[in-house]
Amino acid sequence: MKKITILIASLALCSMLYAQEGIFGRTIPSVDIKTLTGEKFNTTGIDNQGKPIVISFFALWCKPCLRELTAISEVYPDWQEETGVKLVAVSIDDARSMANVAPTVNGNGWEYEFYCDPNGDFKRAMGVNLIPHIFILDGKKNVVYQHTSYAEGGENELYEIIKKVAAGEELPKE
Amino acid sequence: MTFTKTFISCCIILVASIYSSRSQDIPGNPTVHGNFQIDAQTYHTDDALGITDSTLQGKEFRMNGYGDIKFSMWRFNAGLRYEAYLPPLAGFEPQYQGQGIPYWFVEYADDKFQVTAGHFYEQFGMGMILRSYQQWDLGYDNSINGLRVKYSPVDGLSFKGLIGVQRYYWEPFENDNRGIVRGFDGEMVFNDIIKSMNESKTRFILGGSFVSKYEKMQSKTLLSDTTVYEYQLPENVASAAGRLTISHGGFNFYTEYVHKFNNPSAFNNYIYKDGEALLASLSYSQKGLGAYLAFKRIDNMSYKSKMTELGNVLDINFIPPLTKQFVYSLENVYPYATQLNGETAIQGQLVYTIPKGSKLGGKYGTKLEVNYSLVHGLDKEPIENGIPVDSTGTLGYKAPWFSFGDLYYQSIAATMEKKIGKKMKLNLEYVYIDYNIEVIEGHPEEPMVHANEFNIDFTYKFTSTKSLRAEYEQLLTKEDDGDWAMLLLEYNIAPKWFFSVMDQFNYGNPDKDMQLHYYTVAAAFVQGPHRISLSYGRQREGLLCVGGICRQVPASNGFTLNISTSF
Predict the structure, then answer these.
(1) Interchain contact A75–B (C-beta under 8 A)
(2) Cα(B555)–Cα(B365) distance, rounded to whole angstroms?
């Protein structure tokens, strides 16, 4: 237990040296994931030219995830037009269903940017426990909001936040 | 506790090095992130389910929990995970009981080079030769503790090498209590390497892996059927794999072949036959249409870093089941799990969205999906007359490629999804399943289960945030536990509140005393990344499956509390 205390203390010490920048601030970690055609893609390449980005972790076996992506797809053209937001959907399907991700998402007619994270490397790096899990990033790719679970209508609240982020407004503290 | 020492030393060096170079302009701020989860359950006696004080053995409250902390700065990452199972939830391996830090790592990464010391998760290709991963819900973790290096000298070319030992519950690695895993993987994107192919619309990716296990054999003798045999047991077991991806426009083709050299183990009854696996998939998609077809054949592909191990631990590889992963509760009464000793499977799926505005599509479009999966065992023939199939110490059997054995599993699923006006959504699903319960669940002499399943999933939106979702499911079968019906009502106030009541009723159970209601009442509150949920009710016995593996969950009765957060 003592060792763990030392460890946490040393991490805290190191962090405090830079505390003025906010140690809980977060951007996209550098992790290799895959495109829908199986090519390696580094997550630092996720970009939307200074406009907001939504990263959504989902899987084909997760019904609420699919409900959320379906609901957003109906309003996505409006969202894009008004805020320039881009939705990046990251599938955590493993080898069982990874090859089925492209035909399923295209068959649904979804027009997001898709990636596959078949061994959960990006999921772990982002600290995702449960899916659906959504992150909203500002124009500098800082994570400004995150949310887990989906209920019908949940996309409306997301959009309120995206609009604030696009306008450069401060988000209210939860 | 040497691992903790090593980790702390590494961290101190890291802190010191960062501190000493503080004056320099280091890009990126140090950050700390983490996530926590607690799953706790109370266990009450329930006469109908046969749960009494003696079966509970005093373990009336159980909890699984973890805390994962990650520290990043510049090109360094470090992290650890604390886990506690006090005691583990029912259905988890009892060997997990305890608490500690089973996972920690330090890592350096730049554009071309990455080195990880400590524990890591890795996958080569589709994982059929090597995959270490974690599934918290299933209590599965085969992380590798050792060293891993990744190197990508130029765009389109990447290499990985690793060496280590796998997690074995809480057991420290000592006295050769498990093997050492070594692996190498290389991948090349032709279009990036060969200039003349840069602009080609057809893209080729070629990959290859080599994995080997070293396990010291404590004894050269095996006891089988009360006879003692003396064998040359291989201390090194190697395997090699090759894979190819070709994509062109909406088409995508993937194939991977794995060959595993002789690997007698408790899982294959100590036969010396080589193992092999082939996976191939082809998909085509365009907006509104997706088609997928896949084939898999595996033969003797259990590959563990301990010869005598039979449990859900120490797997070096992962063989994906090639069946649809169902989302509704009663469909998952009969989930398929890969039979590692051999199976042949095909799967096909078609997804089509009838465009909005058309007669059948309506105002919002209508989504249709059809899936078919079929799995057969291998057709095993004796290697010689008089030697039974799977005899210990022999080459086991011959299995012709184009001859199928027993039916293990078959399913046909058809789904329709439609939005009706602004307020209503309707999902209909029909599933037919053939399920070889004798093979999949190991229930000898039980007949094949034939099941029909219907689901109606209806959502009504009262306001922009308030909605009610109703789910009716019915499973009809003459075998096993007979017919089931289920009703779920879920009232949601987006994005924070979830309330639900559910009842699963096994009204067709051939045993009248087991015609029981399995009811649950649940509520959840979500605030950003924080979620807390509480439920009370009865859980039916069954297989809980995520990804490729399953866990047998016993029937229970009690309160369940889940808390999860991430920052």
Answers:
(1) no
(2) 41
What domains are defined for chain A? 25-166 (3.40.30.10)
B494 contacts A105? CB cut-off 8 A: no
Give the closest-approach CA distance of A37 to chain B in angstroms. Answer: 6
DSSP assignment of A37-105 equals TS-EEEGGG---TTS-EEEEEE-TT-HHHHHHHHHHHHHHHHHHHHH--EEEEEE---TTTGGGHHHHH
- Write out chain B residues lying below 8 Å of A4, CB-based: 4, 82, 101
Which residues on chain B are in Cβ contact (under 8 Å) with A17?
18-19, 22, 30
Is residue A151 within 8 A of residue B491, CB to CB? The reply is: no
Could you give phi then psi for residue A19, rounded to 5 degrees?
A: -55, -30
| Cβ atoms B342, B381 nearer than 8 A | no
Distance CA A89, CA A66 (A): 11
pTM confidence score: 0.92
What's the first-to-final CA gap in chain B, in angstroms?
28
Residues A169, A161: contact at Cβ < 8 Å?
Answer: no
Query: How high is the pLDDT of residue B138?
Result: 86
pLDDT tens, position by position, B312-370: 899 999 999 999 989 898 999 999 999 999 999 999 999 999 998 888 888 888 999 99
Q: Where are the strands (E) in B319-448, listed by range? A: 342-354, 366-378, 404-420, 424-435
Among candidates B14, B350, B467 on the partner chain, residue whose Cβ is nearest the Cβ of A152:
B467
One-letter identity of residue B539: Q
Residue B429: both structure tokens together? 């699903």
Q: Which residue, chain included where needed, has tokens 């799977």?
A: B390
The ipTM estimated for the assembled molecules is 0.91
Q: What does the mean pLDDT of chain B come to? A: 91
Let me know: does B3 contact B171? Beta carbons within 8 Å: no
Q: Given an 8 Å threshold on Cβ–Cβ distance, is B566 in contact with A128?
A: yes
Distance CA B536, CA B551 (A): 21
Q: Which residues of A touch B244 (CB under 8 A)?
A: none
Give the ranges where B330-480 is alpha helix by DSSP (H). Answer: 437-440
